[in-house]
Structure to design on (181 residues):
């Protein structure tokens, strides 16, 4: 990821902690909630790995291909079996966004210092708009007076109130990653 090293390491920490929490949450979930937690763990840990500041580790181009392959497989998994709601659609968009970031970063892996790779402006803008709306919507849902009555029933586990906060954190991290393209 391009940008200051401090913000990169903060993203690594935030996404890594979120991904680790989602892994722990998987143990106390079953069915769709477990599948959702697993998808969120993959996204969080993958975003943490991709956010490592490029100044600290000049990653070879094959690493970006590996990221694109892993998240391409996650996108295919989100399509199979048939989509089951908005959360499934969000995982599909998130996986495809990670593929896009990996492809853009791969194309810029050999770029000269000061000339980072740029993505397709229309696609980047569309993803930025999607994640801006997602973050605002997720943030509003954290306010108890506005949250839907059955909102907490969506996630089973020992600490369901943390799952929406994790989703908000990952949405913010994706927004930050897309801003650096």
């Amino acid at each position: 990821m391009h940008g200051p090293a401090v913000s990169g390491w903060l993203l690594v920490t935030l996404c890594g902690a979120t991904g680790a929490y989602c892994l722990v949450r998987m143990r106390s979930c079953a069915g769709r909630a477990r599948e959702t937690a697993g998808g969120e763990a993959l996204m969080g840990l993958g975003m943490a790995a991709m956010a490592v500041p490029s100044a600290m580790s000049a990653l070879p181009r094959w690493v970006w291909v590996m990221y694109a392959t892993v998240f391409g497989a996650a996108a295919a998994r989100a399509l199979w079996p048939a989509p089951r709601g908005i959360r499934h659609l969000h995982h599909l968009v998130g996986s495809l966004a990670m593929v896009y970031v990996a492809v853009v970063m791969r194309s810029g892996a050999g770029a000269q210092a000061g000339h980072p790779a740029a993505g397709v402006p229309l696609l980047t803008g569309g993803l930025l708009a999607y994640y801006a709306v997602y973050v605002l919507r997720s943030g509003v849902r954290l306010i108890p007076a506005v949250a839907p009555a059955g909102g907490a029933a969506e996630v089973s586990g020992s600490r369901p109130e943390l799952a929406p906060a994790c989703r908000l954190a990952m949405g913010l991290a994706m927004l930050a990653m897309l801003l650096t393209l």
About this structure: The chain has one domain: 5-60+103-179. The radius of gyration is 16 Å.
